[in-house]
From TrEMBL:
Family statement: Belongs to the cation transport ATPase (P-type) (TC 3.A.3) family. Type IB subfamily.
UniProt domain P-type ATPase A: residue ranges: 127-229
UniProt-annotated location(s): Cell membrane; Membrane
Listed PROSITE patterns: ATPASE_E1_E2
Organism of derivation: Solibacillus kalamii
Protein name per UniProt: Heavy metal translocating P-type ATPase
Bilayer disposition of the protein: Multi-pass membrane protein
Length: 634
């Protein structure tokens, strides 16, 4: 019974969310029925059906238009469309009025749907910040408290595998921390006493005592949420222009119709019947039906084309903005690169067998859940190596591991752990070159010295290189923003072919760079896949997320690459530019037709039926022109 109630509630919520779209579609269906009735001379039934379509399709927009007019004390297009539809009905053209209502209602419903998706609460992001923490006071046992109750200088205990609940400084302990949620850095970072840690990051392998340095409302994680919400609430320049144009257009048309209702009678000696008739014709032919159709069919067709090619666009305005981007900022981890480390180099001392040494390393690393250890084990499996068993290990957090095997002692880990001098000398000084290539190097040491090294790297996607080249051909500069260190960032940027890069970026600095690019270059696109990219995705003119990214990145972004293929961005830009050309053609054509119809009406050279044919005909033509966007060729 409870499950049934929940299902009914969920269904009701979905109906309420899409009520405008449902009303528009029902209105369209009733119009078809009314047209059928009219064709079989059921005039009264047809009129009743048209009135029903008027009410169902136009109620939401009429209510919105009236409320907005009262609130802003300014007329809008909703009012004009309702008056135009009523005017059509008054002079006997019920179907034309109903169609005007249907088109406008459908357009508004689609806009509402896109807006609801774009402003959905980022609940998945909120869940990553713990709600409770283990508070440590004196020599007492830790107690669980709400994160909101934590104060600056409180000490909290963070166990292995737990998310750090507050921004702070490590008071006691050494551990490896995964900061991908904040910096996007794929490699976990070793943290010692005195190092800064952030809320939402993960403590991987050792107990930490953290001193709280910021209240929960001011953590870096909370700032990410605030930045996303703030950026999403800002109106785009196109939206602001449309709102200004709307007010001017409506006032101009209504003023012209009002003047047309009596001036020709006195100035041109028209009789009252002709004067009122011409005023009604003006109201019909001047309605912006063709202008609305100039944009929406082309936009929806372009969005459909993109979807077929693995590009999901959340709204027409984002597709429009794609055509004018001059800089594309890209995240590194998971965007230009695979997002997980892989083994790129394996060097063994001359007196050792390569397969046996790899089996030993994999046997040691197989007992760790560290991302580097997992990558080494994956490499061993690819080489068909069977891990050595019965190895005793001791984990040294932040450095590596000690191991015992066949009565021999081994050390595996970072250069400083096995001996920095020995590490630098091994394999003719390979460490320096590998580090300059942005690789992380792990060493194995036995009783004779360094036995082997394994270099790992988050490798650049092959399609990313082609995508960067294709974008540069379109006149778009590609800039990489990453949380990685300078050495790694430089190596990845060179390999991927990007023109500029910025290393060691936090979410806040990514936003700052996006804003700077907008000042110098105009429209800016941002590509990312992590939570840390969400503020930059929301701030950019167009935010583009990889389909395999985090939920918050997908919700925040304006465009989603469903197959994680960066080469699709170039296709999206071409699609957008073609759409803009078609939209401009449609707008010029529709405005020209409206102007000709208005002039013809003034000179009494056109009747109402011909005016309707010209008006609806121009609408059909611009729709057909817009449907060209469905073509596979871009």
């Amino acid at each position: 019974m409870i499950n049934s109630n929940r299902e009914n509630l969920s269904l009701n919520e979905k109906i309420l969310e899409h009520k405008e779209l449902i009303a528009a579609l029902v209105s369209g269906f009733i119009i078809l029925l009314a047209w059928r009735m009219e064709s079989t001379e059921q005039t009264t039934a047809a009129v009743i059906a048209y009135l029903t379509a008027f009410f169902i399709g136009g109620y939401a927009k009429a209510k919105e238009g009236i409320e907005d007019t009262i609130e802003s004390k300014s007329l809008n297009v909703e009012i004009l469309m309702i008056i135009a539809a009523i005017g059509s009905a008054i002079i006997g053209y019920w179907m034309e009025g109903a169609i005007l209502i249907f088109i406008f209602a459908l357009s508004g419903a689609l806009e509402t749907y896109a807006m609801n998706k774009n402003n959905r609460e980022i609940s998945s992001l909120m869940e990553l910040q713990p709600e409770e923490a283990w508070l440590v006071r004196g020599g007492f046992e830790p107690i669980k408290v709400s994160v909101k109750d934590l104060k600056v200088n409180d000490h909290i205990l963070v166990k292995p595998g737990e998310r750090i609940p507050a921004d702070g400084e490590i008071y006691k302990g050494i551990s490896t921390v995964d900061e991908a949620a904040i910096t996007g850095e794929s490699m976990p970072i070793t943290k010692n006493a005195g190092n800064e840690v952030f809320a939402g990051t993960v403590n991987l392998n050792s107990v930490l005592t953290v001193k709280v340095t910021k209240p929960s409302s001011e953590t870096l994680f909370q700032k990410i949420i605030t930045l996303v919400q703030s950026a999403q609430s800002e109106k785009s320049p196109s939206q602001q222009f449309i709102e200004r144009f709307e007010s001017v257009y409506v006032k101009a048309v209504l003023l012209a119709v009002a003047l047309m209702m009596f001036l020709p009678h006195y100035l041109l000696d028209w009789d009252w019947t002709t004067t009122l008739y011409r005023a009604m014709v003006l109201l019909v032919v001047a309605s912006p039906c063709a202008l609305v159709a100039s944009i929406m069919p082309a936009t929806l067709s372009a969005i459909s084309n993109g979807a077929r090619n693995g590009i999901l666009v959340k709204g027409g305005v984002h597709l429009e903005n794609l055509s004018s981007i001059r800089v594309l900022a890209v995240d590194k981890t998971g965007t230009l690169t695979q997002g997980t480390p892989v083994v790129t180099d394996f060097v063994v001392r001359d007196d050792l067998d390569k397969q046996q040494t790899l089996a030993l390393i994999a046997g040691i690393e197989g007992q760790s859940n560290h991302p580097l250890a997992q990558a080494i084990n994956a490499f061993a499996k690819e080489q068909d190596v069977i891990n050595e068993q019965n190895i005793t290990i001791e984990d040294i957090p932040g450095y590596g591991m000690k191991a015992q095997f066949n009565e021999q002692s081994y050390i595996i880990g970072k250069p400083d752990f096995v001996g920095a001098k020995l590490a630098k000398q091994f394999a003719d000084g390979a460490l320096e070159q590998l580090a300059n290539e942005g690789k992380t190097v792990v060493f194995l040491k036995d009783h004779q010295g360094i036995a082997a090294l394994i270099a790992l790297k988050d490798v650049v996607r092959e399609e990313a290189k082609k995508a960067v080249a294709a974008l540069q051909e379109l006149g778009i500069n590609v800039a990489m923003l990453t949380g990685d260190n300078e050495t790694t960032a430089k190596a990845i940027a060179k390999e991927a072919g990007v023109s500029t890069y910025v290393a060691e970026c936090l979410p806040e600095t990514k936003v700052e760079h996006i804003k700077q690019y907008e000042k110098t270059s105009g429209h800016v696109g941002m590509v990312g896949d992590g939570i840390n990219d969400a503020p930059a995705l929301a701030t950019a003119s167009v935010g583009i997320a990889m389909g395999g990214g985090t939920d918050v990145a997908l919700e925040t972004a304006d465009v989603i690459l469903m197959k994680n293929d960066l080469s699709k961005i170039a296709h999206a830009v071409k699609l957008s530019r073609k759409m803009q050309r078609i939209v401009k053609q449609n707008i010029i054509f529709s405005l020209t037709v409206i102007a000709l119809l208005i002039i013809s009406n003034f000179f009494q050279a056109i009747s109402l039926p011909l005016g309707v044919i010209g008006h609806e005909g121009s609408t059909i033509l611009v729709i057909l022109n817009g449907l060209r966007m469905l073509s596979k060729n871009v």
